[in-house]
Amino acid sequence: MADVSIRALNKKYDNGFHAVKDVNLEIRDKEFLVLVGPSGCGKTTTLRMVAGLEEITSGEIRIGEEVVNDLPPMDRNIAMVFQNYALYPHKTVFDNMAFGLQMRGYPKDEVKKRVQEAAEILGIEPLLERKPRQLSGGQRQRVAVGRAIVRHPEVFLFDEPLSNLDAKLRVQMRVELKRLHERLETTAIYVTHDQVEAMTLGDRVVVMKDGRVQQVGEPLELYGRPANRFVAGFIGSPAMNFVEVSISGSGDALWAETQGLRVRVPQGFSGKVQSGQRLTLGVRPEALRLANGADEHTFATAVDVSSRSATRSCSTSAPAACRWWRASIPACG
Amino acid sequence: MVIERRWKKWLYFYIPLTVFILFTLFPFYWMAVTAFRPDSELYATWRQPNAAPLWTLHPTLEHVKGLLQTTAFPTWLWNTMLIAIVSTIISLICGMFAGYALARLRFRGSEFLGTAIFITYLVPQTLLFIPLADIIRDMQLGNTPWALMLTYPTFLIPFCTWLLMGYFKTIPKELEECARIDGATRFGAMVRIIFPVAVPGILSAGIFAFTLSWNEFIYALVFMASADQKTVPVGVVSELIRGDIFFWGQLMAGALLGSVPVALVYSFFVEYYVTGLTGSVKG
């Protein structure tokens, strides 16, 4: 059990590419922290630096009390689950899981006991004698997780471990990973590009872009109060709508205006918004409701395309045969 | 439609395949038939009545017996085997480490080194044997098996390195990273994880190296003088062609027996060999 502290971390490659820029993160003991962002945002590089697989250009990584900047991966007491599972193809499932313990010189009985224990937790006992190529994707995934937990490491690192699974299995494994984390109570850092995964798994979520941390926070905090436009657009599916507006009016009666749209700025914003400003109005699709006639919080538009999902339906619109929509803009704190 | 497709399959697949197989295998067939044909048939004209130019009417083992009893063929076979095995082992070991380093370690000039090693493979042996002969003479290794065991790696190591470098690159690097997190050093991960996974590639490099040294001619011809030190390719040609007389029966029997070990090696490892060349490792 350990907390992980990352300070002023930078990674610059020989070709000059600055992959990770001044990342500062404090990961609490037993916390499940998810790094999320588009591809090339530096999340995997950050994780690999914590693992010791990538050299640090500058900065400091601490696991527990120890600065691990120059420690080889094997001395960091971490375990990592890779995107392609990285199971040793020539070894059986048992040997795959036992390898880390054998390399550290554990006695045979202990190795067997721990592998058995991990296999039980993950429900892979009948597979112990098989080779990785005889397993399905989901089973391989479990073995990869099993290999990580047998060593009882201080920190788990997950590098997009679910992205090779089909949609149904992914949801199932997500739940299992969450349950496993609650059971083992080990600090975990999890990298994904899938925001749904990030929101459902993480105690806290770190959104990254172009090597920089954009926001760190609990999932609902990111959703409700995104720190910047990138986070607002990245978190949430379908993505938030952005409209460039200018503010008019005075006092409490402020209006956000653009062509075909004029809505009242909610009370909570007064004092933060001034007349004459040009702003970006962000409205989540699920915040739009069909309204009964016009008032100051509504605008008229026509439904262009409508797509359904099991829980809700969303529409994209074009300003033709209009219907009234109400945009509920959350109060600003 | 179905008829047309079948017709096309014959035209594009079976007929070319048959022609190709005939073209490739006919020399072997000819070699085998000649080895078992009595001299009376060998030197008879094809126009003679009852002539059977494509097979033999009176198969005989006289050439094989003659080869084994009147020449040093068993010794040549032993020499060839020993030299091929030792030089293959030397080249494989060097090739595995060099190939791994070039495929995985990021150091300045690694790409240039990889290309440079390949270029040395392209230098023709007919040029290289001159300086090598000088070295062999200085080291007083001439006419000993070491002359060949140490010179064959000069072309086998670049070859093995190049082939294995390509194979190692197909192995996901996560396997090795995972081993290093699991507690192995880089060397440990290489020996315990990468080499076992690369067995198909290592075997195909080994088979190639073995075949190349088995069939090698120029160095063996230049560095080995006495009859009892020769290898099969040189022995057969130098001892069974006397002046302008070709002992075709014995020559072909020698070639046939000489190709058996290589054929055996290939047939045992053919599956590994194909995987080794197509290079597919799945985690």
Descriptive notes:
- The complex is a heterodimer of chains A (333) and B (283).
- Chain A has helices at 43-51, 93-103, 108-122, 137-149, 167-184, 195-201, 219-224, 229-234; strands at residues 4-12, 18-27, 32-36, 58-63, 66-67, 78-81, 155-159, 187-192, 204-209, 212-217, 241-250, 253-258, 261-264, 278-283, 288-290, 298-308, 313-327.
- Chain A is of the alpha+beta class.
- Chain A has 2 domains: 4-234, Rossmann fold, CATH 3.40.50.300; 241-327, no CATH class.
- A 6-stranded mixed β-sheet of chain A has the order 6-7-8-3-9-10, with helices on both faces.
- In chain A, a hairpin with a 2-residue loop joins strand 9 and strand 10.
- In chain A, helix 2 (93-103) crosses helix 3 (108-122), helix 2 (93-103) runs parallel beside helix 4 and helix 3 (108-122) packs across helix 4.
- The radius of gyration of chain A is 24 Å and the shape is elongated.
- The mean pLDDT of chain A is 86.
- The mean pLDDT of chain B is 87.
- Chain B has 14 helices and 2 strands.
- Chain B has helices at residues 2-35, 39-42, 62-70, 73-104, 110-122, 125-138, 145-151, 153-170, 173-182, 186-197, 199-215, 218-223, 232-240, 248-278; strands spanning 241-242, 245-246.
- In chain B, helix 3 packs across helix 14, helix 4 (73-104) packs across helix 11 and helix 13 runs antiparallel to helix 14.
- In chain B, strands 1-2 form a two-stranded antiparallel ribbon.
- Helices cover 76% and strands 1% of the residues of chain B.
- Chain B has 2 domains: 1-60, no CATH class; 62-278, Orthogonal Bundle (MetI-like fold), CATH 1.10.3720.
- Chain B starts with a helix and ends in a 5-residue tail after the last helix.
- By secondary structure, chain B is an all-alpha fold.
- The interface between A and B is medium-sized, with 28 and 20 residues.
